[in-house]
Design goal:
The structure holds 2 protein chains of 2 kinds.
Chain A lengths: L1 H10 L15 H4 L3 H51 L7 E8 L2 E7 L4 E7 L2 E6 H71 L1
Antiparallel strand pairs in A: 1-2, 3-4
Helix pairs in contact in A: 3-4
Chain B lengths: L7 H7 L8 H42 L6 E6 L2 E6 H44 L8
Helix pairs in contact in B: 2-3
Chain lengths: 199, 136
């Protein structure tokens, strides 16, 4: 019974393939005797660590996206600004960063073309509308990606919580059993003592 | 994450028989934990947006003193562009509006989350009493 439940739980995953943590419905289904406790706890510990490892990776990915998105947004802002200039308007005077702490002035004539740095030493010229479209799609893709990551992070949090509750419950079960055993032992010893005088 | 052991008195107060964790309890605990994580992230967002709003307000106040004919260096992307005062003020007000909108959206989310959390807290404390610790 416990086996099938565990398997069904283990097979279930979230949309991006992260497995669902098994829920311990009855501790007795997982640990039948106190000898199993250590093994089970170790098993749970391992699973928790795996989830935490994934959590860390996900946090790093989100941080990366958080770095990337303002860059795209900035470029998009600039493109949108250039778009507001039509051919008749005066050249704009821009102070741009030539290097760290060094700025230079430039007169920018109204333009219909912008050059986008695509990375890997490649720069391409785009008509302004094309650039806007490309950047907007990149930005929304990044946002989607981030929201997926956040969803995964939420999901991972839940699995870690489940595992922590599982661990606590198995541990508590062990404590209760230990106490019960001791009581039984004491009870039998008492019986033994009270038995001798009569026997 | 701070863990604590129950004290002897707490344990007595909890009672000998441990409250069984049912699937729905686990789901509630999970949800609480997830909302808590969300809450922290959203709080950060609100803070940074409020900061941005304050900065924009400062800039607008500063510009009140500027001359009509002055050219203002306005930062767009990575470069500063000389623009006449009126245009800068327009850009600023659209930006401020956007920030205010975004901030209130985030705050609204935060409020719903907090409400849900306090509901869950009531339910979970009712079921588990002192065996569970939901404070941070």
């Amino acid at each position: 019974m416990a086996e099938t439940v565990a398997k069904k739980d283990a097979a279930a995953t979230n949309p991006r393939g992260i497995p669902v943590a098994p829920f311990v419905d009855r501790v007795e289904d997982y640990v039948t005797s106190r000898t199993d406790v250590e093994k089970t706890l170790k098993n749970f510990q391992e699973m928790t660590e795996k989830y935490q490892f994934m959590e860390q990776n996900m946090q790093r990915r989100i941080a990366g996206l958080n770095d990337k998105m303002p860059d795209i947004q900035k470029t998009l802002d600039t493109v949108l600004f250039l778009k507001t200039r039509n051919l008749g308007s005066d050249p704009i005077e821009a102070t741009f960063e030539l290097n760290d702490t060094l700025y230079a002035k430039a007169h920018v004539l109204p333009t219909e073309e912008v050059y986008l740095w695509l990375g890997a030493n490649v720069m391409l010229s785009y008509p302004i509308d094309g650039a806007e479209e490309l950047l907007s799609s990149k930005l929304s893709a990044a946002k989607l990606n981030k929201s997926n990551c956040e969803e995964d992070l939420d999901f991972l949090r839940e699995q870690i919580t489940t595992m922590e509750v599982n661990t606590a419950r198995v541990y508590n079960w062990d404590v209760t059993m230990k106490r019960k055993e001791r009581q039984e032992l004491e009870a039998s010893e008492d019986k033994g003592k009270s038995g001798t005088p009569n026997g | 994450m701070n863990r604590r052991m129950l004290t002897k008195e707490d344990e007595v107060a909890v009672g000998a028989d441990e409250v069984e964790v049912r699937r729905e309890d686990q789901d509630k605990i999970n949800k609480f934990s997830r909302l808590h994580q969300r809450e922290i992230a959203l709080e950060d967002q609100v803070k940074s947006k409020q900061k941005e709003k304050e900065d924009l307000d400062d800039v607008s106040n500063e510009l009140e003193l500027a001359d009509e004919d002055d050219m203002i260096q306005y930062k767009i992307g990575d470069s500063f562009i000389s623009l006449p005062l009126t245009e800068v003020q327009e850009l600023l007000s659209t930006n401020t509006e956007k920030i205010v909108e975004e901030t209130s959206a985030v705050e609204e989310k935060l409020n719903t989350i907090r409400e849900e959390m306090s509901q869950l807290k009531v339910q979970l404390y009712a079921r588990f009493g002192r065996s569970i610790n939901l404070e941070t």
